[in-house]
Amino acid sequence: MKALMLAAGRGNRLDNLTSNKPKCLIEINKRTILEHNLNLAIMSQVEEIIIVVGYKAEEIINKIGISYKGKRVRYSIQIEQKGLVHAIETAKKLIGEDDFILFLADQVLSKAKISPMVKLFKEKNYFAICGMIKEEDHSKISKTYSIMAGRSGQIHRLIEKPKNPIGNLQGTGFCVFKNSFLDYLDKTQVNPLRGEKELVDWIQCAVDDGKHVQAFIVGEKYTNINTPDDLLYAKSIMKEIFNAK
Q1: What one-character DSSP code corresponds to residue 154?
Q2: Hey, what domains does the chain have and what are their CATH numbers?
Q3: Choosing a second label site near 98 at 20 to 30 A (CA), which of 47, 72, 92, 189?
């Protein structure tokens, strides 16, 4: 099992905070957001970490190096920032034939249950698991994606940035995939509005093909950091985490 960490973006909406560094190198509690996610990867007992870099790539490489807490780190360069699916495509050769856990390097999660998610993935032999949280604030769900699932948790439909979410499940960037999920990269259509392939559309391709993709409650509070408000919320989440220790 490998960890795939997507860290190529700048974060244009964070203004001067990312003028000279990627947003994943913004510090919260004296540690970069990237390192918070790398620690979750280490706790998941992955064999290797692959980091997709792009904007100010040298800053990330110089910060992390070729090893993190004893785990080998390799880098894939996304020359053009053309979305998450394109980032995964750039890392395909480094992933090789292994299953992998997807991490976004600019996300924060409290009470993370990454290891139990991976354990379930292996025990049940699911094709993929999408990490979710329960979120009553629908405006937060509208920033990521929502799902429609059966009673068993099997996902039937994923909805990217829904204006009116159905239910209270918010999708995160923490997902586990069988290696053969990569076969759906070429089958995923480019979103006509954004001009790039969307993560949700990629996963939906497998769902539509009859593959078992499972929803899993992976934590309690979550945000993907794109705006100053997101960063403030991330800091409040991290404060809760550190106060609980």
Answers
A1: B
A2: 2-244 (3.90.550.10)
A3: 189
